[in-house]
Design brief:
It is a single chain. The chain is α/β, with parallel strands linked by helices. A hairpin with a 4-residue loop joins β3 and β4. α1 packs across α4. The protein starts with a strand and ends in a 6-residue tail after the last helix.
Length: about 170
């Protein structure tokens, strides 16, 4: 992986999406260009039934690009192919300062583990993943050898990511 990549991992309902969203806001506010990749463990649809692009895809198109002056998107139908790897998806992204990856628990990039009190009964992912370099929790975490941040302390978590990845100051 050639991009600067940092992951947000954790169990379901641990605060990953909220943390990712808030980090994007913080880091883009500082002047960084940030892209995100979200891994889903289920079928999902980003297209609305009845729209032209949905109809193109339903008719069998392998890829459908939808383009306007405000944004564009490219949808690719796997149609039985293997799920693309994280490096394959990273290779499709435009250049940016940082890619935040939500999910992809087992991939080989640095990560912060999000924890909420309601998921604290699950085994910490950091116990079995040396790529988890910090924790962000909404409750006290005792006995951790990793840095522990308050889940709501977004500026400090962003500082940690910037320093950990040696991102140039903007």
């Amino acid at each position: 992986m050639t991009q600067r990549v940092f992951g947000i991992t954790g169990w379901k309902n641990s605060g990953k999406t909220t943390l990712t969203e808030r980090l994007v806001t913080e880091l883009t506010g500082r002047g960084y260009t940030v892209s995100t990749i979200k891994h889903a463990h289920h079928d999902f649809d980003i297209d609305v039934p009845g729209t032209d692009s949905f109809r193109h895809r339903a008719a069998g198109a392998s890829e459908v690009a939808i383009v306007s002056s405000h944004r564009w998107a490219l949808m690719h139908e796997a149609r039985g192919d293997a799920e693309p790897t994280l490096p394959e998806i990273l290779a499709r992204l435009s250049p940016c300062d940082l890619v935040l990856v939500e999910g992809y628990k087992r991939e080989d990039h640095l990560k912060i583990e999000a924890r909420r009190k309601n998921t604290a009964t699950r085994a910490p992912l950091s116990e079995n993943d040396p790529k988890i370099v910090a924790l962000a929790a909404d409750h006290p975490v005792d006995g951790s050898t990793l840095p522990v941040f308050d889940l709501d302390d977004i500026p400090t978590i962003a500082d940690f990511i910037v320093e950990t990845l040696s991102l140039a100051r903007v």
